[in-house]
Structures are given as structure tokens and as C-alpha cells.
Design brief:
mainly alpha
């Protein structure tokens, strides 16, 4: 059976792994096997982190909206319910931005949500 030399494939594979592991501690940035394990773990953490980021930002927006609602004497749930009943379709990201940067605009949203919520309760 003839001898098969791997050519550049082996070197390229290792080089790619070591490039990704640049800056890791001790052998994790120098030796291929340790670097490969560290890179795989880092990629898994990155994948999970991208999903957690969405969850964390949504909860941050809800906290900001709730804080602005409490100043206007309405609970978060009543505010969101009132907006839906009034037909105002704004997502939580936009609502949080309005609550932080435009208090007058948020106050008008609160008034419309309160009116819609009151008309539904009675």
C-alpha cells in the first residue's frame, strides 16, 4: 500500500484551530488537542450566549417599561393589556426606548392604555 502524505489539509486544520485559540491560557493556545477542546467549548458557550442575550434583553425592557408605568400609577400588565385593546402594536424594545428617552410620548401611551383598559373592565 502506498504512503499517503496529507498535504496541506492537516496543517490547515491545526492552524485554523490554533488561530481561534489565540490568547487562551498556557497549552490551550499552543497544543492542538487542548486548543481543539477549548475552541469547541468556547463555540458552545457562544451559541448558548447568543440565545441568552435575547432573553436578558427582553427582561431588561420589561423592567424599564414597568418602572415607567409605576411612575404613571399603572401596572405593567394593565399597561400591556390596554395597549393591545387600544390596537397599539409596539414591541417591548420600542416601548422601553420611548419610556427612557421620551417621557411625554410614554405618558400619552399610558393615557390611551388606561382608557382602553377601563372601557374593557366596565
Amino acid at each position: 500500500m502506498p504512503r499517503v502524505k496529507r498535504g496541506t489539509n492537516r496543517r490547515d486544520y491545526r492552524h485554523k484551530t490554533l488561530r481561534r485559540a489565540k490568547g487562551y491560557f498556557l497549552t490551550k493556545s499552543k497544543l492542538n488537542r487542548a486548543a481543539q477542546e477549548a475552541v469547541e467549548k468556547a463555540l458552545r458557550y457562544g451559541y448558548v450566549g447568543r440565545r441568552l442575550k435575547k432573553r436578558n434583553f427582553r427582561s431588561l425592557w420589561i423592567v424599564r417599561i414597568n418602572a415607567a408605568c409605576r411612575i404613571s400609577d399603572i401596572s405593567y400588565s394593565k399597561f400591556i393589556n390596554g395597549l393591545k385593546r387600544a390596537g397599539i402594536d409596539l414591541n417591548r424594545k420600542v416601548l422601553a426606548d420611548i419610556a427612557v428617552n421620551d417621557s411625554a410620548g410614554f405618558a400619552t401611551l399610558v393615557q390611551r392604555a388606561k382608557a382602553a383598559h377601563q372601557s374593557n373592565v366596565q
